[in-house]
Amino acid sequence: xxxxLIADDEESIRLVLATAxxxxxxxxxxxxxxxxxxxxxxxxGFDVAILDVRMPxxxxxxxxxxxxxxxxxxxxxxxxxxxxxxxxxEAMKRxxxxxxxxxxxxxxxxxxxxxxxxxxxxxxxxxRIRTEVxxxxxxxxxxxxxxxxxxxxxxxxxxxxxxxxTVLIEGESGSGKELIARAIHAHSPRWSGPFVALNCxxxxxxxxxxxxxxxxxxxxxxxxxxxxxRFESAGGGTLFLDEIGDMPIDLQVKLLRVLQxxxxxxxxxxxxxxxxxRIIAATNQSLERAVREGRFREDxxxxxxxxxxxxxxxxxxxxxxxxxxxxxxxxxxxxxxxDVSGITPEAEALLVRHPWQGNVRExxxxxxxxxxxxxxxxxxxxxxxLPEGAPPPALAGSxxxxxxxxxxxxxxxxxxxxxxxxxxxxxxxxRPLIELVLEQTGGNQLRAAxxxxxxxxxxxxxxTALGIPIPRGGA
Length: 475
Known about the structure:
With 475 residues, the chain is α/β, with parallel strands linked by helices.
């Protein structure tokens, strides 16, 4: 149930909408002018507002603008008899949840109000996991973001609330893919079941199948007892498969079969087990490219991408950084007994300008380090220990020039084996890149993997495959 305000100067429209929404179980209030609507909404307590564009003394769009300026937490649906592009664009620019033209279908209105109500619930405290399930998860499952991209993600989570659809979350490392997966789980019908996460790139190939599906005693050397796999452990809940792009092809075949048949067997077993887990997969690489390169099955890709969610990198939603700063400082104070009360405008501006190659995770780590080591209660630029701005343009330019020359040479080289130019360039760049990063980190593989944007196991595999010796020195 939502508390809804209907504002329209036509009494017949008010009564029709009020009756339809009251029958759907909502608590409805009415206003016949823009001023009256604004006064009621500013007073608080409303989840959703339906505003007509043309009303006496103040238009619905002006009411919407005033609500946004006052930061009133209400979701607004705009209605109008004038179906013009200007009205639609202006409504969405001012932050409307959606836009309807008269005459409208009442079922559509009821559905839209239900979605808007869910959106209000998701963004009530900027994506806070609802109270009754927040205690089930570790601290930090809050989604922060008022940018349009994050608002779209919140809306998608709301639309998924009553669904069991498979979800594929794509985004760079550190952008918050697992938090989104947890939010989807928490707002799904399976919220009371387990949330089981598995990083497909962090487990050796010969153990991954057993981790996912379990095994019977004696299935292989060392299998001294039966083991329940992640699929079985996630029964009644959600199985989150992170870095799905690193799953070996033969396991992709088995996963596809499970998604199709909704059943599986443990390794070395014959008993058929029903798969009762909702699948959410995530990747930091392009699965479309992986399909083209033959590293990922196309049929599995489409099975996973029933509902796609793309998480924008932090550098594409810089407007969210101030809110993230406040969130992470409060979290650090609570968890580490620090006493940081704020940040200077100059330091905040520096954080907003930074390129954040490590995304939200890098921002959090930067703020934790600064809060722990800062001598005062207010963070300054010096406390952040962060280089000003993005990498020098000369670096990008010189790298592009080098690649341009190398590509020209490769294209016109008649003796170059094969036709895969992408593989040839990657092979030429990857080894020196890894060697240089290891050199800069003194052989610290964990730090090198973090800088390269890959996990430590992947780095180890590359070191072995490329025959790169690990430099010795301080970590």
